[in-house]
């Protein structure tokens, strides 16, 4: 061991990014490169009856207009969202119905505006409700989780519990808005396809392109040298890469397609809205007797994707009677997909809000309520945890936050027109790893080259993998170079599910440890080309484990609520995490703080609406979809415990990219209740919603629920 792991090493690509030399997918200036601009459908359901291209082709610089009438034919994809320009069918508003290719970006945009598309529109339905006649129980939720899990008799136990909570929460559609939009540059040469794309996993992109265009994978190279964020939306191939490859084949020239930001919500996935019903039954001592979490969400008509928002309830608390259920309605909406902490982010918001309501009904400290319901093993599976230090996170967070001095009475603290409050929530995220390959070479000059098709989506993967390699070989960090981001490198899984570093690092560690053994046995100078070792973790990284593996955390928030304007300002956010061994203190803190900031947006600013009349998202760009900025939070602190867990991977690490978002929204919502005495059960907590709740709480029979969704609220039985 060199002490490299855990050190706050600076990101290796940092100077390239701030200096502007880091190349992104749309920044490869290939000779003769053309630009493309898509044409989205203007109806929510129907079919294209005609595509008028004359005016577009008359725009100076326009080279071609592709539609279902003349676009290159591709094989039927496994993912229906990639079947672009293959049929006149329009499954939702914003579906791409044409693509204009031109000499310049300006000409492509002007040409797209000149394309005339005629439709035979059909009646559409985009409105989700618990009572929608099309709601059904799927076989599986996202991630392969069973849609329904039951233990004991949750209904009977709930009915007989001395204290109950029966409440409903709503989380609206949410959108991935990475700084770099989805973009691809494609080039065909001598029967080979080269693509530079903004993707979280280029191996998956290459496999999809090979299937669609009928090519052997070895004749396709896909690179993602730098990726300006993805948050899940770049986890699988998106239409931009298919359209760029189509356009390049049709025109015989390199083509770049960068999707306009306002088109992203309709074509790259979104977090589906989730309607939650939580029923908690507990004894006077606060111990749960019954926990029921039911979720209703939507999916598109072309692809089933069911947000697994009830799954966290299967992990968190000891309840002998447990029921979790997912229901879904297929509507005329864009296909939902991955968004940072899928399932856990909305699911834990609802669960942790309900736990706070239960604490209020019991008159119990919400930290102590969670501690009192700590399970001995994973409630759903019965497997022991590989490690679980949630209680320690809660205790340490409470100490750092000053929780002991909190007045539990809602509305007790004021600062002029401001009401002040604090809240807490727990967090969990599963530990995952996938098989990966890696190669390492020792060179005669004393340096080492690590090669692996990992993807750096802004997390510092290059730096952390160099630390893993240096630690395994036993050399200083500056002697290790890392090559990532190309399908010409040893194959690796995508950056997603908080599993990237665990998966890639496992293979890098094995390769470097193997090289260290070879070097220990080697005598004399190294050969001119060096010594090579390759590792493949198939059968190991994906082996069954008899332990439940999760990361845990505790979030604390302090808010100020303006009684005049309804504005909520977050004064402090603090998170404490138990996430295995932290491999780089600098990049880890950045990941935790980034996740907490995204949770802040989920709580206070981010939300989208499907317009019933048009069938489209009303908030389609950053002018209307509001993400948080520095001014939205005065202080964000991230801390972690030194957690030892030998049942994870050779580094002893857990994923950290998503757990930061998981409990933040609930902690903020619980703090708003503590500040105001009003329970808001629908996100985001925008000024208009909060002000209406405050005004409603001042009128007779308001019930103190503000903009609450229907639900009976806490009940204490005699």
Brief summary:
By secondary structure, the protein is α+β, with helices and mostly antiparallel strands. The protein is globular and about 75 Å long.
Question: What does this molecule look like?
Answer:
This protein has 718 residues and is an alpha+beta fold. It is built from 16 helices and 27 strands. A hairpin with a 5-residue loop joins strand 20 and strand 21 (448-451). Helix 13 crosses helix 15 (664-676). The protein is globular and about 75 Å long.
Main features:
single chain, 718 residues, alpha+beta, seven-stranded mixed β-sheet, six-stranded mixed β-sheet, 16 helices, globular
Mind sketching the topology for me?
Layout: H1 14-19, E1 34-40, E2 46-52, H2 54-57, E3 62-67, E4 89-90, E5 96-102, H3 105-114, E6 116-121, E7 140-141, E8 145-146, E9 148-151, H4 154-160, E10 163-171, E11 183-189, E12 192-197, H5 202-213, E13 220-223, H6 239-251, E14 255-258, H7 264-267, E15 274-282, E16 288-300, E17 321-331, H8 344-362, H9 366-372, H10 390-401, E18 413-415, E19 418-430, E20 437-442, E21 448-451, H11 461-473, E22 480-483, H12 500-521, E23 531-536, E24 550-562, E25 568-578, H13 585-604, E26 636-640, H14 659-662, H15 664-676, H16 687-697, E27 713-716
Parallel strand pairs: 1-14, 12-13, 16-17, 21-22, 25-26
Antiparallel strand pairs: 1-5, 2-4, 2-6, 3-5, 7-8, 9-17, 10-15, 10-27, 11-12, 11-14, 15-16, 18-19, 19-24, 20-21, 20-23, 24-25
């Amino acid at each position: 061991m060199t002490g490299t792991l855990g050190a706050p090493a600076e990101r290796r690509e940092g100077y390239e990014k701030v200096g502007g030399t880091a190349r992104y997918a749309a920044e490869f200036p290939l000779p003769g490169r053309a630009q493309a601009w898509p044409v989205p459908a203007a109806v929510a359901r129907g079919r294209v009856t005609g595509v008028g291209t004359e005016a577009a082709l008359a725009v100076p610089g326009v080279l071609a207009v592709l539609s279902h009438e003349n676009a290159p034919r591709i094989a039927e994809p496994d993912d229906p969202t990639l079947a672009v320009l293959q049929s006149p069918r329009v499954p939702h508003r914003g579906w791409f119905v044409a693509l204009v290719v031109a000499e310049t970006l300006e000409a492509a945009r002007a040409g797209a505006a000149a394309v005339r598309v005629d439709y035979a529109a059909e009646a559409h339905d985009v409105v989700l409700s618990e009572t929608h006649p099309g709601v059904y129980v799927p076989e599986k939720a996202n991630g392969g989780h069973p849609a329904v899990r039951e233990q004991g008799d949750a209904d009977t136990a709930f009915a007989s519990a001395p204290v109950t909570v029966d409440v409903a929460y709503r989380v609206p559609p949410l959108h991935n808005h990475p700084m770099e939009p989805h973009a691809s540059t494609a080039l065909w040469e001598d029967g080979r396809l080269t693509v530079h794309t903004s993707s979280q996993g280029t191996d998956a992109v290459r496999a999809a392109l090979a299937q669609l265009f009928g090519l052997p994978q070895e004749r396709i190279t896909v690179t993602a040298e730098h990726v300006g964020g993805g948050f899940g939306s770049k986890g699988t191939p998106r239409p931009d890469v298919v359209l760029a490859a189509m356009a390049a084949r049709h025109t015989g020239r390199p083509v770049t397609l960068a999707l306009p930001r306002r088109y992203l919500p309709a074509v790259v996935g979104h977090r589906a809205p989730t309607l939650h019903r939580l029923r908690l039954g507990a004894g006077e001592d606060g111990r749960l007797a019954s926990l029921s979490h039911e979720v209703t969400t939507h999916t598109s008509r072309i692809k089933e994707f069911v947000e697994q928002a009830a799954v966290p309830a299967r992990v968190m608390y000891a309840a002998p009677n447990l029921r979790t259920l997912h229901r879904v309605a297929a509507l005329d909406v864009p296909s939902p997909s991955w968004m940072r902490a899928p399932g856990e982010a909305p699911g834990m918001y609802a669960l942790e809000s309900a736990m706070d309501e239960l604490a209020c009904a019991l008159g119990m400290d919400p930290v102590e309520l969670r501690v009192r319901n700590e399970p001995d093993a994973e409630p759903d599976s019965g497997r022991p945890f590989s490690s679980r230090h949630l209680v320690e996170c809660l205790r340490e967070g409470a100490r750092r936050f000053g929780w002991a001095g909190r007045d539990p009475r809602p509305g007790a603290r004021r600062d002029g027109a401001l009401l002040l409050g604090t809240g807490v929530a727990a967090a969990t995220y599963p530990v995952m790893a996938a098989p990966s390959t890696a190669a390492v070479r020792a060179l005669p000059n004393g340096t080492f080259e690590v090669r692996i098709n990992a993807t750096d989506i802004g997390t510092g993967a290059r730096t952390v993998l160099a630390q893993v390699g240096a630690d395994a070989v036993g050399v200083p960090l500056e002697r290790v170079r890392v090559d990532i981001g190309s399908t010409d490198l040893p194959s690796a899984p995508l950056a997603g599910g908080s599993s990237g570093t665990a998966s890639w690092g496992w293979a890098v560690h094995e390769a470097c440890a193997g090289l260290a053994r070879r070097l220990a046995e080697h005598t004399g100078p190294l050969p001119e080309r060096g010594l090579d070792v390759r590792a493949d973790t198939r059968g190991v990284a994906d082996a069954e484990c008899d332990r439940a593996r999760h990361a845990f955390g505790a979030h604390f928030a302090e808010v100020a609520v303006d009684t005049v304007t309804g504005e909520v300002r977050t004064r402090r956010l603090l998170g404490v995490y138990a996430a295995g061994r932290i491999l780089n203190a600098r990049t880890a803190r950045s990941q935790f703080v980034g996740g907490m900031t995204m949770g802040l947006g989920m709580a206070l600013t981010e939300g989208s609406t499907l317009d019933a009349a048009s069938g489209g998202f009303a908030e389609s760009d950053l002018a209307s979809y509001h993400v948080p900025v520095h001014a939205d939070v005065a202080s964000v602190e991230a801390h972690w415990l030194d957690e030892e867990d030998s049942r994870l991977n050779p580094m002893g690490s857990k994923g950290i990219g998503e757990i930061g978002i998981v409990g933040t929204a609930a902690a903020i919502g619980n703090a708003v209740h503590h500040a105001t005495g009003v329970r808001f059960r629908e996100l985001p907590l925008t000024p208009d919603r909060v002000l209406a709740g405050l005004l409603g709480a001042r009128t007779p029979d308001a019930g103190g629920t503000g903009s609450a969704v229907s639900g009976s609220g806490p009940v204490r039985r005699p």
